[in-house]
């Protein structure tokens, strides 16, 4: 028999819990047994170091946001999809850009051949961004934009659309991924070398802090690190270390940790090892809160919160017997919920081979709706807290992460930011990730690790079903669109704005955002703007390390 | 002894940055005794041909994870033909089964799909190299 919780921490939790609005559903089991909002010991959810959750009432007040990432074809195609989502009650938009856009290349670049509109929407100029958000009031929606290398230009285009449609820039809400450090470590969508790239990130943090207080300028992402092959602890450690690096860069620019700290958010992977993932999520909150408070001097608790988005592990999906991926996604989604995520994207079962079909994407959304509405896991905050195994796993994840922080601190002579630069330059991150990926493959290959449908239980693979194919006509359309914009624009204004941008890039004391904004308004292309900064910054070429 | 080792040039052609698979394949081939020259990301058909010539490659392996294989693999084959190089091309990555025949009939020598075992990876490369060696007039070479 456990005793009823009491004490000052419980009273404080109760006060915070009572002060929040709850969803209008019965908080009882399927059989009608009423359950408490939290069990176990202090510190409770919403209390430092937030191991047990960022809010006192967690999902009793608000379920996680079911934010499904989408984007394809032309800006008009995606705009139609956005409007449909808004009509069906969604208030959050999430934009996927195609590969040339992610790399700061125009659709007309020779590099873009075969890639235009394939894996997301193509954006070459402000005109595409105007089409993308046509008839949508940017003051009413929250927009997530997954882009890194050319993030400043895309953010400037978003601001320009707001200005042109009469929306106050300080009303804009959303998140831009803008996590350039993990690009060198894992996703590899960089343009410039790390240091000038960090200047751009810091300029964006400063710009949004001053002008867009409701906009999150960085989403620090471990997702891609894990997909590239890292372990759970490496994902945790590299991601939080990158977070520390952004904090150190902003502090060096005289920014207030309590201000920008509140607008940093995270993005993690949820893989198949259930308890390891839950331990990782809980450890992330605890580590971030401690470091923000103790090392970086945050005093506002909101600046210590590790709020995060979760996506199920794309890399865990098998091309063999694709339907069984639905089971994998369900387990990974449940781990995200038990880990206290703020939003969740569930992968579609057919994504091992292509972008999801509509049916597969719907099943993925339904999967997280089952977790949210049928399982009852949302009634109790941190329901696994206090379990000896889960608490041990949380401690173990933290211990492994702290070892990696100590290494990076050492590499950087007491600066995690410098440690990250050194680790990028000397191949530490990519080497560690490749080693972990190869270790996993060897274990699968030796049969010591079972992947159902791949190296065991292989009967029943009837091959792939219908796959989504993107119409090649998108490329023609986009090329014509770009050509006509180039004909119509004032080329002198474009040239002048680009010259100014290059000049500003040469002076590190100048914030780049105003010049980028001017260039986007003159309808300079994404690639022209990238090239104007490239003149000063150069490009980054990764050493090919196996 | 080293003269007879299979030399493979591996590269990522185009913008796609997914390099987990190609790095694993590089280590598998190396562990199987092959000489692996990994060119890295963002290569062009020209840079790959130059490297294959310079390294006297027995095979070229490209990795594609972005649905670009039906565009990029033919452009590589075309470039090889223009350069009059008789080097087998192996494509690895996210290749749907329904596209494998199209790639093979276009002239790709082997396809390494998702979930391939280490033995399959090595076999596909060895078979591709052996097939070209058999068909070349100068008689059998490496492999």
Quick tags:
heterodimer, A: alpha/beta, four-stranded parallel sheet, 20 helices, B: 143 residues, Rossmann fold, five-stranded parallel sheet, 5 helices
Structure description:
The complex is a heterodimer of chains A (546) and B (143). Chain A has 546 residues and is α/β, with parallel strands linked by helices. Chain A has 20 helices and nine strands. Chain A has helices at 8-19, 75-87, 99-102, 126-132, 151-164, 181-187, 194-211, 223-227, 232-252, 257-260, 274-295, 325-338, 358-373, 388-411, 416-425, 428-445, 473-488, 491-505, 513-521, 526-537; strands at 65-66, 92-96, 142-146, 173-176, 215-216, 218-221, 264-270, 308-312, 343-345. In chain A, the strands form two sheets. In chain A, strands 1-9-8-7-6 form a five-stranded parallel beta sheet. A four-stranded parallel beta sheet of chain A has the order 2-3-4-5. In chain A, strand 7, helix 11 (274-295) and strand 8 form a beta-alpha-beta unit. The longest helix of chain A is centred in the C-terminal third of the chain and has 24 residues, at 388-411. The mean pLDDT of chain A is 94. Chain B has 143 residues and is of the alpha/beta class. Chain B is 45% helix and 16% strand. Chain B has a five-stranded parallel beta sheet, with helices on both faces. In chain B, strand 4, helix 4 (97-106) and strand 5 form a beta-alpha-beta unit. In chain B, helix 3 runs parallel beside helix 4. The radius of gyration of chain B is 14 Å and the shape is globular. Mean pLDDT of chain B is 91; it is low at 139-143. Chain A binds chain B through residues 99-100, 102-103, 105, 111-115, 118-119, 187-189, 227-229, 315, 318-320, 352-355, 433-434, 437-438, 441-442, 445, 451, 454-455, 463-464, 467, 470, 541-546, and chain B through 14-20, 23-24, 26-28, 30, 36, 38-42, 66-68, 70-72, 75, 94, 96-98, 113-115, 117-118.
